[in-house]
Amino acid sequence: TIICVLCFGKANSASGMAVNDECKLKFLELKAKRNFRFIVFKIDERLQQVAVEKLGQPEQSYDDLAASLPSNECRYAVYDFDFVTDENCQRSKIFFIAWSPDASRVRSKMLYASSKDRFKRELDGIQVELQATDPSEMSIDIVKGRAI
């Protein structure tokens, strides 16, 4: 019962997590103008808000995104994935990635998990969601498989 009370309390405090306006503006630029290949977001625990940490330029790759995610800290990311269908049509899908590595702090994992849905609602146009605790769970092959 104590654990449930703690989790419930944590979710309530995190549900008030603010989203910095830059997050929404940069996401719109990624979606509409294709100014970025990816965006990495970080929760600033001191300010209690989600903020942009890194912008991936259009020529950057999925490997660049993966290399931008720390091995011991949680992050959110969006990735604009271009692919060609079996019918030879050029397509694009926007992925939301919830990165929560095993080595990250329990408090951080709880904060990111409880804030994820609210944050995703601020980013209108997410088409696919991935949750990963280790790089193998978000390999490019998994992304390709989820896109089609």
Per-chain topology:
Blueprint: H1 2-15, E1 18-19, H2 21-33, E2 38-44, E3 49-56, H3 62-68, E4 75-84, E5 90-99, H4 106-122, E6 128-132, H5 140-147
Parallel strand pairs: 1-3, 5-6
Antiparallel strand pairs: 2-3, 2-4, 4-5
Helix pairs in contact: 1-4
Structure characterization notes:
By secondary structure, the protein is α/β, with parallel strands linked by helices. It has a single domain (18-147), classed as Severin. The chain contains 5 helices and 6 strands, in the order αβαββαββαβα. It has a 6-stranded mixed beta sheet with strand order 1-3-2-4-5-6, sandwiched between helices. Strand 5 (90-99), helix 4 (106-122) and strand 6 (128-132) form a beta-alpha-beta unit. The relative contact order is 0.17. Keywords: Actin-binding.
Strands in their spatial order, largest beta sheet: 1-3-2-4-5-6
Which spans have pLDDT < 50 for at least 5 consecutive residues? 1-14
Oligomer description: single chain
Q: What is the residue-averaged pLDDT?
A: 90
The tally of beta strands, per DSSP, is 6
Strand proportion, as a percent range, falls in: 25-35%
CATH T-level fold name: Severin
Short description, anyone?
This protein has 148 residues and is an alpha/beta fold. The protein has helices at 2-15, 21-33, 62-68, 106-122, 140-147, and strands at residues 18-19, 38-44, 49-56, 75-84, 90-99, 128-132.
Task: Provide the descriptors you would attach to this structure in a database record.
six-stranded mixed sheet; alpha/beta; Severin; ADF-H; ADF-H domain-containing protein; 5 helices; actin-binding; 28% strand; ADF/Cofilin; ADF-H/Gelsolin-like_dom_sf; 148 residues; 6 strands
